[in-house]
Amino acid sequence: MTEIPDDHPRAASLRTRHRIEDGVEKGITSKQGLIAEGRGEAFDYLLGERTLPSADDAERAAAAQLLLADHAVLSVNGNVAALVPGEMVELAEATGADVEVNLFNRTDERMDAIADHLRDHGADEVKGLAADARIPGLDHERAKVDADGIGDADVVLVPLEDGDRAAALAEMGKTEIVVDLNPMSRSPRAAAIPVIDNVVRAIPRMTEHARDLAGASDDELERIVAEFDAEEALAAAERAIRTGGDE
Amino acid sequence: MTEIPDDHPRAASLRTRHRIEDGVEKGITSKQGLIAEGRGEAFDYLLGERTLPSADDAERAAAAQLLLADHAVLSVNGNVAALVPGEMVELAEATGADVEVNLFNRTDERMDAIADHLRDHGADEVKGLAADARIPGLDHERAKVDADGIGDADVVLVPLEDGDRAAALAEMGKTEIVVDLNPMSRSPRAAAIPVIDNVVRAIPRMTEHARDLAGASDDELERIVAEFDAEEALAAAERAIRTGGDE
User: Cα distance from B55 to chain A (closest Cα, Å)?
Assistant: First the structure.
């Protein structure tokens, strides 16, 4: 990663790809994860590889929502662990959230590799290994969560989540924040707060917003959440992809 | 692959992904190939997973160009071998073209695995293993071609080709046909005939056109090639992606 000069026009994109490839070597990223990374690259290319103003609004609303939560949990899958392990730990610290590993293709080896990777990046406690609760309406392996983690959470951040699980979590009544680069896909459409942005840009920005809002009153945080318009944010992102314009 | 019912709404897309994943098991598809498959999926999704009329025109012009060639060569990389091995062999037979393996990340193991895979799908002769000629202007490993293959060809079909190599082949004066799902990327823009379509749809259609044109005169074939407008085909595909419309 240090071989890519900062002034390379595609430095950020190349660093992202290297992190994903390193994730394969470490047993963190799956084949499906590599294909998903490619899909994300294409949508990010069409978005201009930038954070739209509407996405920044979503990131601020997400930070406010995490700060308001009684029990917030940040869900980590293989690509999230490969791309933003330290950034997720920082966001958890800035918002008082738990971190829980949840995989679409769950194996004990990948669960352990990801939990170790998060601990290497500063996580004190990593949930997801107990798997003593279930999300209703999903296949056995995909339904597994921790009873004192996502099972108990009122607010969940699920970056790069599968559509079925995003819908099932929303149906459980959890307030859901989804990060995804395709505004037409089901996951962000199931979310209370859809963040249409690259996870490598979105997570650090959420942390910045959370630090900025650390002293804010609940009233102010609630106002920020209430003013965020999910439908309009999705529409703005789709317009940006379709027209290539500035929303 | 037989587990996916034909009436499944995403049957074609799922079969494609299974072929790519099988390619990984066989040592044919690389990590980069999986990411590239994901990028292609995203662009194909935005195109509506269909062959645009302008793409069908390109496929007919490509067939005519292959039939007109003194020496046509079909280049095969890891994803092409995983996705359309038998289809490439059929196109070679229908046009009298050679088949040559060319990899972006060349290793002897992958070269052999791909050559074997093509032979399993009916190829008599597979070029690319001699590697006794070079494409000027490329890194050592990426420059390797066969002297009596791409080195000697006047017309080359390079599906899913890297931008640098597509540009270098065009600079050698070869008439280049590129299949790619992103009309904004450099490879199709370097091509005499850019085919903006999924390789799983494009290659069988080229073969159909070649069979249909088998009895055509050189004058007729030349007219078909001359009437194809590469700039307009690229613009039509970009409009379809951006607006979601029917070109």
Answer: 20
- pLDDT at res. B1: 38
Does B17 sit within 8 Å of A35, measured CB to CB? Answer: yes
> What is the torsional sign of CA A232, A233, A236, A242?
negative
Q: State CA B68 to chain mean position distance.
A: 18
Residue written as token pair 């406690």: A125
- Report in angstroms the alpha-carbon separations of A84 from A81, A198, A199, A215, A232: 6, 11, 7, 26, 27
Local structure of B180: helix, strand or coil: coil
- Output the CA–CA distances (angstroms, integers) from residue B168 to B70, B130, B159, B188, in the order listed: 20, 20, 15, 13
Q: What is the ipTM of this complex?
A: 0.86
Coil vs helix vs strand at B153: coil
Residues from chain A that touch B241, judged by Cβ atoms under 8 A, are 46
Residue with tokens 């959470």: A153
Model confidence at A2: pLDDT above 60: no
CA atoms of B113 and B119, how far apart (whole Å): 10
Whether A11 shows a pLDDT value over 80: the answer reads: no
pLDDT above 90 (res B205): yes
Contact A58, A194 (CB under 8 A): yes
Residue of A nearest to B23 (CA): A31
pTM of this structure: 0.89
The length of chain B in residues reads: 247
Q: How far apart are CA A127 and CA A138, in angstroms?
A: 20
As to burial, measured by CB atoms within 10 angstroms (0-12 exposed, 13-18 middle, 19+ buried), residue B214 is exposed
Segments of B32-83 assigned E as strands: 72-76
pLDDT digits (tens, 9 = 90+) for A69-79: 999 999 999 99
Residue B245, burial from CB neighbour count under 10 angstroms (0-12, 13-18, 19+): exposed
Partners of A37 on chain B (C-beta within 8 Å) are 35, 38
Other CB atoms within 10 Å distance of the CB of residue A211: 14
Nearest CB partner across the interface for A34, out of B38, B42, B244: B38
Instruction: Give the Å distances, CA to CA, from A173 to A168, A228, B226, B228.
Output: 9, 19, 61, 56
Q: How far is B7 from chain A (nearest CA, A)?
A: 21
The answer to whether the CB of A207 falls within 8 A of the CB of A89 is no
Residues A178/A161/B46/B36 CA torsion (nearest 10 deg): 130
